[in-house]
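hey
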């Protein structure tokens, strides 16, 4: 089970800001922007955005729509959407998720450390 599935199951706590039948969103535990949310399909079937786009493009589109709604709710509606894809690109959780960064972004918020 991924750490995100443990959050979905309420086995570990998180600050959940959105939930539907298919998607959950919560605050990143180590925020790198004033608003830093993770938007996560509940399915563990897709390790990264490439697999999600190939396997369920409608779910990817839904994820982008949720990201936009959250950016409107938590900031001014403008946001940076990051999918780290592969360990060499900084991915550490292999359950597809989008980072939604918003609210006073700087170049340092691009996703790299
Ligand atoms: P990745 O590095 O795979 O692109 O993103 C994983 C993200 O998950 C990181 O930004 C990290 O801070 C976040 N994260 C890891 N474990 C937890 C956790 O238990 N709770 C929350 N809310 N975020 C987590």
């Amino acid at each position: 089970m991924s750490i995100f599935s443990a959050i979905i199951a309420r086995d570990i706590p998180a600050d959940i800001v959105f939930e539907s039948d298919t998607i959950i969103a919560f605050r990143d535990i180590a925020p790198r922007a004033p608003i830093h949310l993770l938007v996560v399909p509940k399915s563990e079937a897709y390790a990264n955005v490439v697999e999600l786009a190939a396997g369920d493009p409608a779910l990817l589109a839904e994820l982008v729509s949720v990201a936009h709604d959250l950016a409107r709710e938590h900031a001014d509606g403008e946001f940076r959407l990051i999918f780290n894809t592969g360990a060499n690109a900084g991915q550490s959780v292999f359950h597809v998720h989008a980072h939604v960064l918003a609210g006073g972004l700087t170049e340092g918020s691009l996703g790299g450390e």
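Residues 3, 12, 14, 26-30, 38, 84, 90-93 surround guanosine-5'-monophosphate (CB under 6 Å). The chain has a mean pLDDT of 94.
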